[in-house]
Design goal:
Layout lengths: L27 H13 L1 H17 L8 H22 L1 H7 L12 H22 L1 H19 L7 H18 L6 H4 L4 H14 L8 H25 L6 H23 L3 H27 L1 H18 L6
Helix pairs in contact: 2-3, 2-7, 2-12, 2-13, 3-5, 3-6, 5-6, 6-7, 7-9, 9-10, 9-12, 10-11, 10-12, 11-12, 12-13
Length: about 325
């Protein structure tokens, strides 16, 4: 998916010389590998795993042999989306982000396009091998990803919603392990839809600063998600109270609200980048709440492990 799978702009977390060495005698092969690895945005790919695990919990944890196919699918879809994001953004990045792999010349645009397309196709194929219904969901998600990368991201209001649909599709990919669950679980897709729409809206100001209206929209949207998760955790889904869900929802609020309130007060570019980074990495807490509500505390801990992995990778690679 695109960068949150994707926000529209990228702020490198580490200097590029940690991924690509210009020291005389260094291996050009390892430098090229580092550039393409940077394109894949490993921390974001890891967050996609949590979406599918949450959806699989909603589906009832049945048919466990399908899960590996769905995990392979979501990683390919996400990785393909973020690679194609940079392919389509080349002209903009030459001005605003010349350090990115493609405009810097460390990665070939043509090869990146082939890589991104192959990853998207593989994502759809893996899902179809697991369950035909999952293949349909993956195909629809891949279409949303391409629409966002090629056109949607440049549209002021359509773009964030488009990106939100990508993440909603990712959650439904996990639910599709039990196709019958899609009939009643589809409203849950509104959680990542609203959440990522909010984060992506704010991300528009990562380079030049943002507007208070966008920050207000994001705050209201994120509060809505928090209230919905509280309702689910308190037994609103007729599954009983989930203490773990309540605790995780409180943790999510504690992580999200301070930086987004800070952006609302002062929508400067550096504050926006920090808020977006936290928003992207905290999506796994939404997944963990769903895991706690539908599959119990131990399963939610397994989802949180993906957050630890994403956080570790975020110290080494770009998140947005």
């Amino acid at each position: 998916m695109p960068t949150t799978p994707g926000v529209a702009e990228n702020e490198p977390i580490v200097p590029t010389d940690r991924l690509h060495s210009s020291t005389p005698g260094s291996s050009s092969q390892s430098g090229t590998f580092g550039a393409y690895l940077e394109l894949l945005r490993p921390p974001n790919v890891t967050t996609a795993v949590g979406d599918v695990l949450a959806g699989f919990a909603v589906a009832g944890l049945g048919r466990p042999w399908i899960l590996p196919w769905l995990l392979a699918s979501t990683m390919c879809l996400y990785a393909g989306g973020v690679v194609l994001n940079d392919v389509f953004d080349l002209e903009i990045d030459r001005v605003e982000r010349p350090e990115r792999p493609i405009p810097s010349g460390r990665a070939s645009r043509q090869r990146a396009a082939i890589l991104g397309s192959a990853l998207l196709a593989s994502g759809v194929a893996f899902a179809a091998l697991g369950r035909p219904a999952a293949g349909i969901v993956a195909g629809a998600t891949a279409a949303c990803i391409l629409l966002y990368d090629a056109w949607g991201k440049r549209q002021t209001w359509v773009g964030p919603v488009n990106m939100g649909l990508c993440r909603a599709g990712n959650l439904m990919l996990g639910v599709a392990a039990a196709p019958e669950a899609l009939r009643w679980a589809w409203p849950l897709g509104g959680l990542p839809l609203v959440y990522i729409t909010a984060v992506t809206t704010v991300s528009r100001g990562e380079v030049h600063g943002g507007k208070r209206a966008a920050a207000s929209f994001a705050l209201i949207s994120l509060v809505f998600v928090l209230l919905a998760l509280l309702w689910l955790s308190a037994g609103g889904a007729a599954r009983g109270v989930s203490p773990a869900g309540l605790v995780l929802t409180a943790l999510l609020g504690a992580r999200l609200l301070p930086p987004y309130l800070d952006v609302w007060r002062h929508p400067a570019a550096d504050k926006i980048r920090q808020a977006v980074r936290i928003g992207v990495l905290s999506l796994v807490l939404v997944d963990a709440v769903l895991g706690a509500v539908y599959a119990g505390v131990i399963y939610s801990v397994a989802i949180l492990v993906t957050a630890l992995t994403a956080g570790w990778l975020a110290r080494r690679f770009a998140v947005t």
